[in-house]
Amino acid sequence: MKRTRVVATGVATSLTLALALAACAPADEGGSGDTGGTPEAGDITLWLAGSDTSDELRQYLVDTFAEENPGSTLTIEEQDWTDLVTKLTTALPDAANTPDVVEIGNTQAPTFTYAGAFREISPELYEELGGDKLLQSFVEAGSIDDTKYALPYYYGSRYMFYRKDIWTKAGLEVPKTLEEFGDSVKKLQSKKQSGFAIGGQDWRNGISWVFANGGELAVKDGDQWTSTLSDPNTVKGLEQWQDVFEGASNLPPTAKDEAYWDFLNDGTDGEAPDGATIMAPGWARWSLGDMTKNDKGEEVRDGMADDSKFDIFALPGVDGGVAPVFAGGSNMAVSAKSQHPELADNLLRIIYSDEYQTMLAKAGLGPANSDFDKLMTVDEDGNPNKFGEVTVETAQASKLTPAAPGWAAVEGALVYEELFQKIAEGGDVTAIAKEYDAKLTPMLNGQAG
Amino acid sequence: MTTATPASAIAIRRRRTPATPYLLLLPAVLILLVGLGYPVYWQVVTSLQQYGMMQQFGAPPTFAGLDNYARIFSDDRLWAVVGRSIVFCLVNAFLTVAIGLGLALLMKAVHSAVRITMQVVLLLAWATPLVAAVTVFRWLFDYRSGVVNWLLVQIGLDQYQGYAWLAQPLTFFLVATLVIVWMSVPFVAMSLYAGLTQVSEEVLEAARLDGASPRQILRHILLPLVRPVLAIVLLLQIIWDLRVFAQIRLLQDGGAPVSETNLLGNFIYELGIGSQDFSGAAAVSIFVLLLTVLLAAPYVRSLMKEDAA
């Protein structure tokens, strides 16, 4: 194994050398690099995170890449979200082992961008791939000032799934403001049923209350990031979330972002569900609904077919409208150590092509290029699709976590989980905010905690 | 010998220093050097440098002297973790050995059919893969659908409806102790049982004839005779329980107050893998290495004493 790597590196190095020499020489035997645009053939690797990209999309990438780059091949390897950061930390710096193109969580992108893990995307290529039409909050997560390193791959957003039958029975309607939402779910709370089933450590949903109140988690001043939990607006949001958690959720303060759909579906033998409302990414739909059989005869959920029983709404803002929620999703970048940067760029051209963006939107993954958003809002027959509509609506109002160099470390050390747990346990928000500001500011700037 | 001819002297010398044993030792030494020596060397070097994400991606690391050690030793979190780890390790080690001893005595006392059943059951518990065992315990203690809460509610303790065992450090460690003791008792019970079978029946019979009570037999005859096994098993257990990592990590994944339930292994993981503070993690690792050596010293010393005897 090791030997092959050494040989591979050797070959790669001498090839690079040969290319460099060829570039210098006015005329050569005409073997490699005779036409400026054709990169040398090779095999490149793409790392995808999780199984969100379907087999159909993967096959399209592999086939199209082989077609457009004769002699070259694309290998797709799937990585697990849970240890993606570890894998990237060890593989990216190693020229002989690095994947050429990687998918990375949008909140993890800044750390790797600042560390110099990615290859710069030239302004010309950026324009070619979509330029300003690309989802800008994700572009910022992968940029240092004006230089782009990681581009958006897809986005998803979070909205509310609720039991319409239970809400209606209690005489409640879809809330118009965030306060009304809190009041409603508190009314639905009983010993056996959470009005709003949310775990105490689930900060990814919880920060929506901060954003909705105009609060920020951290701000950048010059080169320095400062954690701003003590900002009055942030504190207000955290207190409002604390109130909702204490009054409407039966989950322990230590519960994480878990399989919330279990709470919303009927219990065994048609028992009442454990929760009346949950907040989850759009794909949670396929784990919700009544039991039915699919084409293969397997028992599956019907995807909320009964709309008098299950329905969705976007989390309302403080003064109506839609609250800014946390935008989930991922970025795409080329490894700085890639041996085939031209081929990697060609792969990006395929990913950001109209065809592929269309396929993403139709698969329910928010496309990087906003021109294709409208495809999300209709189904295959051209009828309006409420799931896609709410996805686009919430995504447009969504916000990202701070694009600070140390954000991946903050996530890796589970600091926000702990912060929200302390708030969920009923602690004094102002004091907790102050304590965690002191802890977070050095971490955000990439200094060891 | 000294008067031997040159030829025979050579022959003798050859016999005295054959190359084969050294050749046979070579692979083991090489594996130790590569497998242990290099990581320890890297660990020491890294602990003396400023080494984070930037350095991982090619920025030259700067020499930091003992800064990392100064930083981690002045960190309250480290001492909280060290204290917690030592208490947890001692409680678990003594508990495991006590229960193991009890089971070993029981195995000696019961009918052979019962004993074989017990041995099979113990072996099965020991053979259960760690991840599977922890997952089963997590399900047993699940706050919503766990059978433990259900049973407690059935016998009338309504306050256990939806009780989150992993949410408080104390009950978290109770569950962790259950898993760890459950997984390590078989080894201790089997070793001690093997030790007990070596105690000659005549000694016990003589004691009984002299009117010694079972308690006296245990205290004054059995325990002193199996003391070497007991001591070694206890020390091994202390070392193993100090290094416990995966069980805690897997339980934390179920939703727990992470920083209040971290043990040394988890603390290092959180520093190095979680926050990319590789130099800080390396410094703590070296500290744990020294701590383990300190705890293992009696074990090694007693082994040496036995070798000499």
Describe what you observe in this structure.
Chain A has 449 residues and is of the alpha+beta class. Chain A folds into 2 domains: 185 residues, 3-Layer(aba) Sandwich (D-Maltodextrin-Binding Protein, domain 2); 201 residues, D-Maltodextrin-Binding Protein, domain 2 (3-Layer(aba) Sandwich), CATH 3.40.190. Chain A has 17 helices and 15 strands. In chain A, the strands form 5 sheets. Chain A has a 6-stranded mixed sheet with strand order 2-1-3-14-6-15. A 3-stranded antiparallel sheet of chain A has the order 10-7-13. In chain A, strands 4-5 form a two-stranded antiparallel sheet. In chain A, helix 8 packs parallel to helix 10, helix 9 crosses helix 10 and helix 16 runs antiparallel to helix 17. Chain A starts with a helix and ends in a 5-residue tail after the last helix. With 309 residues, chain B is mainly alpha-helical. Chain B has a single domain, classed as MetI-like fold. Chain B is 77% helix and 1% strand. A two-stranded antiparallel sheet of chain B has the order 1-2. Chain B is globular and about 75 Å long. Chains A and B meet through helix 3, helix 4, helix 15 and helix 16 of A and helix 3 and helix 14 of B.
Summarize the structure.
Chain A has 449 residues and is of the alpha+beta class. Helices cover 39% and strands 15% of the residues of chain A. Chain A is globular, with a radius of gyration of 24 Å.
What's the layout of helices and strands?
The complex is a heterodimer of chains A (449) and B (309).
Chain A: H1 2-24, E1 43-49, H2 55-68, E2 73-79, H3 84-91, E3 101-105, H4 109-115, H5 123-129, H6 136-141, E4 143-144, E5 147-148, E6 150-156, E7 158-163, H7 164-169, H8 178-187, H9 203-212, E8 218-221, E9 224-227, H10 232-248, H11 261-264, E10 277-281, E11 291-293, E12 299-301, E13 310-313, E14 328-334, H12 341-351, H13 354-362, E15 366-367, H14 386-396, H15 407-412, H16 415-424, H17 429-444
Parallel strand pairs in A: 1-2, 1-3
Antiparallel strand pairs in A: 3-14, 4-5, 6-14, 6-15, 7-10, 7-13, 8-9, 11-12
Chain B: H1 6-16, H2 20-47, E1 49-50, H3 53-56, E2 62-63, H4 67-73, H5 76-109, H6 112-127, H7 130-140, H8 147-154, H9 169-197, H10 201-209, H11 214-242, H12 246-252, H13 258-261, H14 264-274, H15 278-308
Antiparallel strand pairs in B: 1-2
Helix pairs in contact in B: 2-15, 4-15, 5-9, 5-11, 6-9, 7-12, 9-11, 11-15, 14-15
